[in-house]
Design goal:
- By secondary structure, the chain is an alpha+beta fold.
- It is 25% helix and 39% strand.
- It has a single domain, classed as tt1808, chain A (Alpha-Beta Complex).
- The chain contains three helices and 14 strands.
- A six-stranded mixed beta sheet has the order 3-6-9-10-11-12, with helices on both faces.
C-alpha cells in the first residue's frame, strides 16, 4: 500500500491483499461497454437521487490491504464511506461492475470477487466484453450468491433496473 500511495496520479494499478498489480489500458470494447453503462446508470441514479456513480480510474480504498480501481461503482446516498478531497473513495461501494480484460479474468473473477465479498459489496457484476456475458452476484448472509448470466445486460437487483450495453 505504501508503494501504491507513491505512484503518480493516473497510474493504472491496484492493491489486492497487499500485493501491487499494474495493468495496461483497457481495450476499445471494454471502454465502449463502460461508457454505455455509466451513461445509463448516471441518468437513472441522478433522476432517482439514489447517490453517485463513478468510473475508472478512481481509487477505491476498501481497507488497509486493498485499493481497487473498479470499472464502475455506485455509492448510495446512505453509504457510510467517504469521498476523499482530491482523491478517491474510502469505504465499500454498494455496487461494483468489472469489465474483464484478456489478461485479468482470474484477477476479477476470483481474487477481487473474494475481497468484494469479504468487505461487503452488496452487488457485483463481471462482464466479458468478447462474449458480452454479464454475471451477477448479490451479497446474502455475508456470501455472494449468483444472480444470473445475461448477454448484453446488467439486471441490478439493488437498483431495481436493467441496463443494456
Amino acid at each position: 500500500m505504501e508503494v501504491f500511495n507513491l505512484l503518480p496520479e493516473g497510474t493504472l494499478s491496484e492493491v489486492v491483499d497487499n500485493i501491487l498489480y499494474m495493468s495496461p489500458a483497457a481495450s476499445h470494447e471494454h471502454q465502449r461497454i463502460s461508457r454505455i453503462l455509466l451513461t445509463q446508470m448516471h441518468i437513472f441514479i441522478e433522476k432517482k437521487k439514489l447517490g453517485e456513480v463513478f468510473n475508472a480510474p478512481l481509487d477505491v480504498l476498501l481497507d488497509k490491504e486493498n485499493a481497487f480501481q473498479p470499472d464502475i461503482i455506485f455509492i448510495s446516498k446512505e453509504n457510510k464511506g467517504k469521498l476523499i478531497p482530491g482523491g478517491g473513495f474510502e469505504g465499500v461501494p454498494d455496487l461494483v461492475i468489472e469489465i474483464l480484460s484478456s489478461f485479468n479474468k482470474n484477477h476479477d473473477l476470483v481474487k477481487k470477487k473474494k475481497v468484494y465479498e469479504q468487505v461487503g459489496v452488496k452487488e457485483y457484476w463481471v462482464i466479458d466484453p468478447v462474449t458480452r456475458k454479464a454475471r451477477g452476484f448479490t451479497l446474502d448472509n455475508n456470501a455472494f450468491q449468483s444472480l444470473s448470466v445475461i448477454i448484453g445486460k446488467v439486471k441490478s437487483n439493488l437498483l431495481r433496473k436493467t441496463f443494456n450495453f
